[in-house]
Write a structure and sequence with these properties.
single chain, Rossmann fold, two-stranded parallel ribbon, 10 helices, globular
């Protein structure tokens, strides 16, 4: 299979490596020319392009059997609604428009795209659990708004050949540990974060994210799938404030700009397809919330 990975970041690079190990031909994209040499060691081909560049994406997709869209907004440039409005639209929605508009039905590749559980906001907090068929947020914040717009592009234009994963917060190699992120929030953001205090702290190990991408490609699953751990985690406030206290720092201020579920997220649909995220519940890191 010839696969194009748009966004050779944490998930895209590991998913590409797994696919190459399985004998597939994998090309990757980056927006940073300085990363090309390093990526050439990990992919069969490396292209420099932006997902919003429709002509470049069309050329890159020529002859591909599948495309994995792993490009995601940079957190450091997405801390305010104004920043998110710009970066999320370009990286999520415009890339989706480029990918779905690049091919005709006769040569259209299978698609896997990464979305976020933030699309639920608190819309299902009155229910026992959060499911893919339940309500999504009506928040006007650009984060869930643009993720939902991206999903709509993929599902409306290529639903019969598209798998969209609604992912928990992705972490992995090279990513600062949770306690370091808490310290950075105090140091660089004045102790104020855009998240909800009572949202459950769902995460996704990059290894699980990459394996889920491979699973989707191997089994051609379609539609929406929640992708995170099955275990119910502590709330944001429980874990972040415990980690703040352990470092002699005050509790964070939660601005509630980006609401996330306060009820357990169901992963039953993905489990029924044969995949479980088995490495995403970081019990050691979360133990601080339990005293």
């Amino acid at each position: 299979m010839k696969v194009l990975v748009i966004g050779a970041g944490l998930v895209g690079t590991l998913a590409g490596a797994r696919l190459r190990e399985l004998g597939h031909e994998v090309a990757a994209t980056t927006t940073t020319p300085g990363k090309v040499e390093g990526l050439r060691e990990k992919f069969d081909e490396v292209l420099v392009l932006r997902g919003s560049d429709r002509d470049a994406v069309r050329a890159a997709l020529e002859g591909r059997d599948a495309v994995v869209v792993a490009a995601g907004p940079n957190a450091q440039s997405s801390m305010t609604p104004e920043e998110r409005a710009v970066t999320y639209r370009e990286i999520l929605v415009e890339t989706a428009e480029s990918v779905t508009g690049a091919t005709t039905s006769g040569d259209a590749p299978y698609l896997v795209a990464l979305s976020s559980t933030s699309v639920y906001g608190n819309a299902q907090d009155q229910d026992a659990e959060v499911t893919e068929d339940g309500a999504v947020t009506d928040s006007t914040d650009p984060s869930p708004t643009m993720f939902l717009a991206m999903e709509k592009v993929y599902l409306d234009r290529a639903g019969d050949r598209t798998c969209v994963f609604r992912c928990g917060d992705i972490f992995g190699a090279g990513d600062p540990p949770v306690e370091a992120k808490v310290a950075m929030a105090h140091q660089y953001l004045g102790g104020s974060v855009p998240f909800s205090s009572e949202a459950l702290f769902y995460r996704l190990a990059v290894e699980d994210a990459a394996d889920a991408v491979v699973h989707a490609l191997e089994h051609r699953i379609t539609g929406l799938h929640n992708l995170t751990h099955a275990e119910v985690p502590p709330t944001n406030a429980a874990i972040f404030d415990a980690l703040s206290a352990a470092q002699g720092l005050p509790a964070l201020t939660y601005r509630d700009e980006i609401a996330s579920p306060q009820k357990p997220i169901s992963v039953a649909r993905l489990a029924a397809s044969g995949f479980t995220a088995s490495r995403s519940y970081d019990a050691a890191a979360l133990s601080a919330a339990n005293g």
